[in-house]
Sequence to fold (890 residues):
Amino acid sequence: MKDFLTAPAAAPGSAVIAKAGPLSRRGFLGAAGGLALVAMLPVRPSRAETAAKLVPGTRVPAFLEIRPDGSVHVLSPFVEGGQGIATGMAQTIGEELDVNPARFTVDCAPPGPDYAVVGGMRMTGGSFSTRSSYPLMRRLGATAREMLMRAAATRLDVAQDTLTTEDGQVLHAASGRSLGYGELAEAAFALEPAADVPLRDPATFRWIGKPVARLDMRDKSTGRAVYAIDQKLDGMLYAAVRHAEYFGTKPLSIRNEAQVRAMPGVHSVHLLEAAVAVCADSWWRARKAVETVQAEWSEPEAAGLDTVAKDFSSEGMLQALRDYDGETHPAETEGDAAAAFTGADKVIEAEYVAPYLAHGQLEPPSAMARFNADGTLELWLPNQAPEMFQGSAAAAAGLEPAQVRIHSPMLGGFFGRHFIYGPGNPYPQAIALAKATGMPVKVIWSREEEFLNDAVRPLSMSRFRAAIGADGLPAALEVRTIGEGPIGRYFGAMLQTPVDSSAVEGIVEKPYAIPNRAMVFGKRPHPVNIAFWRSVGHSMNDFFYESFLDEIADAGGQDPMALRRALLARSARHLALLDAVEELSGGWKRGPFEVDGRTRARGLAMASPFGSETATIAEASVEDGAVKVHDVWVAFDPGSVVNPAIVKKQVESAVALGLSAALYEEVVYEAGRRRDQNYDTYTILTRDDMPRVHVTILESGAPMGGVGEPGLPGVLPAVGNALAAATGQRPRRLPMKNLSFS
Amino acid sequence: MIPLTVNGTTHHVDVEPDTPLLFVLRDTLGMTGTKYGCGIAQCGACTVLVDGEAMRSCQFPVDAVGASQVTTIEAIEEDAVGARVVEAWVSVEAPQCGYCQSGQVMAATALLKAVPKPTDEDIADAMTNLCRCGTYNMIADAIRQAAG
Ligand code: FES
Ligand code: FES
Fold:
């Protein structure tokens, strides 16, 4: 375990794993380290740039193909998984290129240095896509347009400054001649790009900032959208797997191999690193067969990170976080909290807890692998970072990264699921099986295997303590957070600080003017596979902090809205959000109040995730012991937006996931195993629990923030605060289904 | 060989009789518009129409289909109600990731065939498919729009 924590990781951004062969959990540090680095240091020079003088996001032909009919095909650095990035790219490029986004098709580009546009890296995550690439993609569109005009000037033998463009045409007004982009593209894209091409005046935007129609709606409404799980190759075998009961243990032998082999359609039976597998001529046959396998497994170790111990439980892990008596490190310090507590009128404290969570994306993970005659490997797999998977797959296959071709189909939801999580991904199995059988193989994890082997949002626990002054305002706030976040896990050895940002975000860097603050973090690793999950540390920490802030308000005899306004008096941006959410919800009223004979109340919360700012109000009640959330109002300020319709729907989607986590979700370990294996017992939000959602966007003009994740964190505390006001009972532990409200 | 009529075409499929219709559609017939989400009739991603009624094909053994007509998402626009549902889905922009939406469109089509002007309660009763992206409100809007 010590080894794990201090192991030197690979170079930043490197996707190459040192050794080939079985992929150890430690081996993935390097692969995911780049991602963590991006989160830590969003701006850094690209390795590709320094090495090859290639500036990511600038080579027009790497991104754009203009077809003879004038339609535009974009190879995007980002993968579409519901967030609308494909449409956003079409709008951004189309605006400067002068082509209606409706004539675009967008696919996720193969690995390559051109696409390293997120701080010199490439990934779809951290709510980075639009904000990292927006200036580059505008410039790319403008550069391409200039090349088309230059090619047209040559073709028409006129001065370039006598030409204009209009929606995919270059026009020469004087002679009335015009040329379509499709006729010009080949000659144009062979030209040297000009430096410093002027961009459009934003006041003249036709598509950026407008609710342009999404490009993927018809395919997704008619079953024509193709996901990783739908991929097919001639002569392909289907594979189903069963993993160890205790995560990380190995299959040693199969007692009934002959019987399994004799089942219909079965091609072969395999022992993999941490699973047994059956290849067959259909997935159903493979699955039926693998479920009859009787295997001997190695024993899990009693402690450590390589296997999950037989006595491990999530409740025991929580107790370990509580009992932690090791070192803690300052995560945020301001003023003199200790002194403020000494003289305080009133001190309150509370412990907040959030559980492990599964991603639960509706598309089960899959991977399809084919070794080609020339020794190269092709992989079709859900992923948020093609180059990282390329490096990792190359190591697994004993190849160079350049010999691995990664296809990145549309994702059936992701929420952080499709990064590299060691044994939490099926592609090493697909590679091993394709190698063993000499045939293309598609591995699909059943929903049960997914719930048992998905990497989880870490369980977390923080203790809060506040000193309340005679004025009813918080004079000091102390927070002690013990645990581990995914950045610490996958990037630990390279962190410049012992504080894991992904464990404390949402507790530190809050905007409130509390004069004395002392937030500390202590690292207690989770002996399970942990993951990024939509809004990462904010997914629990804003619940903790904003709930406790309402406790502070109550202790000081303050209204929660009034208290926040007082603590934000010097932040115009935050006050504007409070004004907006107040107006959107028809005026602030905390309650409790009666509606149709039932007691309801409203809760307020703010969050500052991923460069955006939110203020959220929820109205909730308890009906027959169950929580009912009626309305959620969100005021959302991401600085500026590319497509307000997409942004609103992303916020609504985040509200649904946040509410699902608030009310229902938890991955529970008992005796070393996960309790829930499917949606029947791992409850997620259904239509019955979906509130009305009202979203207003504020474009403050601040630097562009993220969109996909920031709508989530405010929902949980807004609901908690509403319930506390409605019932007098304060939810301090998630999910709320386990609490009994009277 | 088991006879199976899908979207008006009769196939003879060489599978075990208890094979779920879902995997016959996806793997044997190569019609991947119908999705696998849970396999235990919980999520609705695999919803198809059997004689016009919404069925979760992951729990529907292929030999139970018999002479019934199976309609999948691939042919939904050939149905007048289904075509209206698709247009409403596109105009409301109901999908996010889209993975649940084949099943949602099928369930909505079955609902509107049975109840042309559904109330909110009808929608709540019929539309029990899960959506991890939380598109429930958009789906209800699209159904109301398709109902006219
Ligand atoms: S796959 Fe059939 S209901 Fe989920
Ligand atoms: S749109 Fe993603 S699961 Fe419904």
User: Anything to note?
Assistant: The CA atoms of residues 148 and 184 of chain A lie 6 Å apart. Residues A 82, 362, 413; B 95-101, 131-133, 135 surround FE2/S2 (inorganic) cluster (ligand 2) (CB under 6 Å). Chain A touches chain B through 64 residues (CB under 8 Å).
